[in-house]
Amino acid sequence: MASEVRNKDEVNRTLAELSQHLFPPGLELRYVEVDELREQDVNPRSMPQAMMEQLTRNVQEAGTLESVPLCVQAGGVIQIISGHHRIRAARAAGVKLILILLYLELAPSRVRAKQLAHNTIAGQDDPELVKRVWSQITDIQARFEAFVDPRIFDDIPKPVHFKPVDVDLQRYAKQVLVLFLNTQATDFQAAVDAIMNKLEVDQIYLANAESYEGWKDALQKVREDLDIVAVPTAIAEMARLALKALADGKGDTIG
């Protein structure tokens, strides 16, 4: 026992020196006896018995904890902030010494805040990604260690398959090819992204400001001269007039 304590003291001297290079002042790694760690009077995080038993088996298999609990030095004792169940599992597994991350001093309110934060800020698993990782575990014992209930995969939405629409594409569809230089393509995509964040549209047409102003004036003139209310109808009429002008050999005057 004396040699064990002496070895622990030597390890902690090394850890204290190393912690100065890794952590801000007042926070350090410490090698401690499990039995000297005190739980909080109230711990909101609970764990089902089956999960606790599997955690204990995992610790027994590893011979130590595989993640570092967070603790604080308070009133002459070391209190657990995060890692209550891991430390219980270590004790149940017969582990005597573990590595912890220790605050040398911390206000009680911050201890409570960190306790809640470590319990609640845990993120969420994507079931499809969990299933992908799970499928790569071929060892049965390792699957027990992961403690994943395969029934959660039953809730993953099945892929949606659509029956091809019976449409004569040759008759109703039109193909449009637009070629851009690299810089033009970048500007175009930026404009499309900006517009699509605000609108739900099927088609987007872009022109520089000068061209647009001229086009808008021409559109308004067509609507007024031909007494057209609907904008699409006016645009179609503009296209017909443009084609007629080209056919009459007046293409240079269009625009």
Give the second-level CATH assignment, the architecture of the largest domain: Alpha-Beta Complex
**Strand arrangement, major sheet:** 1-5-3-4-2
Please give the alpha-carbon distance between the first and last residues.
Answer: 97 Å
* Cα Rg: 35 Å
DSSP strand count: 5
**Chain-averaged pLDDT:** 80
Question: Would you identify the regions where 5 or more consecutive residues have pLDDT less than 50?
Answer: none
CATH level 1 name of the largest domain:
Alpha Beta
Give the number of helices.
Answer: 10
Secondary-structure content class = alpha/beta
Summarize the helix and strand pattern as letters.
HEEHEEHEHHHHHHH
Strand residue percentage: 5-15%
The CATH homologous superfamily of the largest domain is called Conserved hypothetical protein from pyrococcus furiosus pfu- 392566-001, ParB domain
- Main pleated sheet: 5 strands, mixed
How many structural domains in the coordinates?
Answer: 3
Indicate the overall shape. Answer: elongated
Helical content class: 40-55%
CATH topology tier name of the largest domain: Conserved hypothetical protein from pyrococcus furiosus pfu- 392566-001, ParB domain
List the helices and strands and how they pair.
Elements: H1 2-22, E1 27-33, E2 37-38, H2 49-62, E3 70-74, E4 77-82, H3 84-92, E5 97-103, H4 108-120, H5 127-135, H6 140-146, H7 169-172, H8 182-196, H9 209-225, H10 231-247
Parallel strand pairs: 2-4, 3-5
Antiparallel strand pairs: 1-5, 3-4
Helix pairs in contact: 2-3, 9-10
Verbal overview:
By secondary structure, this protein is α/β, with parallel strands linked by helices. It has 3 domains: 119 residues, Conserved hypothetical protein from pyrococcus furiosus pfu- 392566-001, ParB domain, CATH 3.90.1530.10; 37 residues, no CATH class; 85 residues, no CATH class. It is 49% helix and 11% strand. The chain contains 10 helices and 5 strands, in the order H-E-E-H-E-E-H-E-H-H-H-H-H-H-H. A 5-stranded mixed β-sheet has the order 1-5-3-4-2. Strand 3 and strand 4 form a beta hairpin. Helix 9 packs across helix 10. It is elongated, with a radius of gyration of 35 Å.
